[in-house]
Amino acid sequence: MKTKEIYQSFSKVQNKIIKVIAQLDTTSKKKTKKWKHSSGGGGLSCEILGNKNIEKAAVNFSSIVGDKLPSSALGKTGITDLKKFKATGVSVIIHPTNPKVPCAHMNIRFFEASLNKKSIWWFGGGFDLTPYFINKTDVYFWRDAAKDLCGRHKVNQYKKFSMDCDNYFFLPHRNEPRGIGGIFFDQLNSPNYNSCKLFCIDCADTFISSFASLFKRKVNLKFTDKQKEFQLYRRGRYVEFNLLFDRGTLFGLQSGGRAQSILMSLPPSVTWNSKYNFSSYEKELLNMFALARKQSID
After folding, report:
1. Distances in whole angstroms, Cα of residue 102 to Cα of each of 96, 116, 179
2. Is 140 helix (H, G, I), strand (E, B) or coil?
3. In terms of Cα–Cα distance, which of 174, 145, 288 is closest to 241?
4. Is the peptide bond prior to 191 cis by the omega test (within 30 degrees of 0)?
5. Each residue of 154-192: pLDDT tens digit?
6. SS3 assignment, position 204
């Protein structure tokens, strides 16, 4: 069965990303927790807390089984009544201390399920960037990394994946993107299993190497109390998306996953009120969001 192989491959992805994050903040301490799912399988959650560069990060692995796949895993496919599913995934969120270092997110996932007594499978995942202070060079760097990833694997759907990411990571009640995007893909099962698996693994590798590069450029930049307050204020947008719209959060809760692990992606500190006027900061940030969205279309 494919899930056994994916279990081993995704576990290696989790370990690799944990090691890279630990190197970004040598003061960080990790807290791991193995857990079991009520209907079978389980996972390994890893929370990373630092005193210098990483305020909080979470790198979680899960591999669960169940009798009926939650609707949140099916998106807009129109598929219903999938039975006896197996779901394996790795999810990552990084909340840096310095407000000039972006928040970053990645997940990869693999599903096997039964449909009309037939076994079907598919991959999904992607990565995105939620900055607070950013410039054109950063936007192009992040977008180009995603584009190069698709090019290496001859996945001729970069524009689709990029636009799907922009459309997914959008807050309708705010009428604004959550960040500058990246790629988002689902129901990936062509041209074959090996090609899709390699693309998924490289997605995780591209994410962590690209983020580490941005991180090292910015981690030592000076910042003011007002800029830190702006970071906490804009983190509120991340929380709103995560609790209202994020399919991974919904899937985890709907499938009976470990709540502490599912909600581990939330930032350690956040505010919706501030003594400052952030109009100039927000104007510049939204201009960068618009630039990123334009690049995904061009």
Report:
1. 7, 45, 9
2. helix
3. 174
4. yes
5. 877 999 999 999 999 999 999 999 999 999 999 999 999
6. helix
Both tokens of 107, joined, read 């997940």
Is the pTM value of this prediction over 0.70?
A: yes
The catalytically annotated residue of 37, 105, 153, 173 is: 105
Reported as a single tens digit per residue, the pLDDT across 212-262 is: 999 999 999 999 999 999 999 999 999 999 999 988 888 777 777 788 888
Tokens of 200: 């998924």
Q: What phi and psi values does residue 271 have, to the nearest 5 degrees?
A: -145, 150
Identify the bridge partners of residue 90 per DSSP, sorted by sequence position: 61, 108
Interatomic CA distance for residues 244 and 224, integer angstroms: 31
Give the tokens for residue 109. 């996932």
Q: Which of 70-74, 201-205, 256-260, 293-297 has the highest mean pLDDT?
A: 201-205
Assess contact for 178 and 169: CB atoms under 8 A: yes
Q: Is 105 part of the annotated catalytic residue set? A: yes
Cα distances (Å, whole numbers) of residue 166 to 53, 64, 65, 77, 191: 28, 29, 31, 19, 25
CB 126 within 8 A of CB 107: yes
